[in-house]
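Async update (no meeting this week)

Hi team, since we skipped the sync, here's where things stand on the single-chain job. The sequence we agreed to prioritize is pasted below, unchanged from the tracker. I ran it this morning and attached the output directly underneath so nobody has to dig for it. Comments welcome in thread, and please keep replies under the output.
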Amino acid sequence: MFKLVGLLTFLPLLIAAPYDARAASADQEFYRGKTIRIIVGFSAGGGFDAYARMIGRHLGRHLPGNPTIIVENMGGAGSRLAANSLFRAKPDGLVIGNFIGSLVLQQILGDKGIEFDARKFEWLGAPVQDENVCALTKASGINSLDDWFAAKKPVKLGGEAPGANDSDIPRVLKAALGLPIQLIEGFKGTSNIRIAAESGEVDGGCWTWASIRTTWAKGLESGAVKAIVQINAKKASDIPNVANAIDYAKTPDARLLIESGIHASSAILRAYALPPDTPKNRISLLRSAFNATMKDTEFLAESRKAKLEINPLNGAEIEDIVKKLFQMDAKNVAKIRDVLVPKN
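Output:
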């Protein structure tokens, strides 16, 4: 009897093991001959697009079967269109989404344009933990943060939509520091803001330093564009003389707005995710491939040549950050909502 009971006890394990092995083996072969789409929530020519295309050129080598990787742009509503689309996408491991991570905070704030639950995405990782900067054109007449404080008319900044850092940062700086700012939204990406600034439609914009120093390099080198203020937990190492917004916050509420409204989301701004319910084995394969890509010598050489910083987070680390954002105190959420969510 004992032997029979013992056998019955372990029989499910004996049956399950080959099945799991077969499932893993099937997923190993699944990607052979397939095409994976990386959906970027912003227009071509910006920093998000540059990172995604670089990752796409290397990711396939680290997946079994070496699938083809293509990048598609789905700009609009500060990348909400891409995020909402990813949430509804077929969970087959063939679609990767790249939308701005600050939309996670917008969900917590009750943004009605958000149709996803960030807690249900399967996070792959992020290539860089971002630093943020406001850059203005020489034509704006602003050469320093002191000039900006003293400006007699609002400085025009281009933005996409609430939840995009190029929109959230101006709102936070206006509320926390009292900077004179006129935010003009509706742009489909930072490349469009850049073009508008160069034509004089706006004075500049605020988004990630990694993107600005790469895609606006000619303007920075010629002096036509200048970094005026950074919005970081600690100063970016290559612009130590540029003022940091947190140093000008004079009240606890001002610090809260900057720290929780901007700093907390910066690490996950460029996060990559899969739709909810993607098969676990495929999540594992894609996470491993993403992590391997971040260490790939050819990838790193290309990133250095393109001046795109690599300072990655893995999927588990992003999950932890998202979880902590959802644990924010309700009173603080209300304070941030008053600034970041427009009252229509």
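Quick observations from my side:
The domain at 132-265 is CATH 3.40.190.10 (D-Maltodextrin-Binding Protein; domain 2).
Confidence is low (pLDDT under 50) at residues 1-19.
Reply here if anything looks off.
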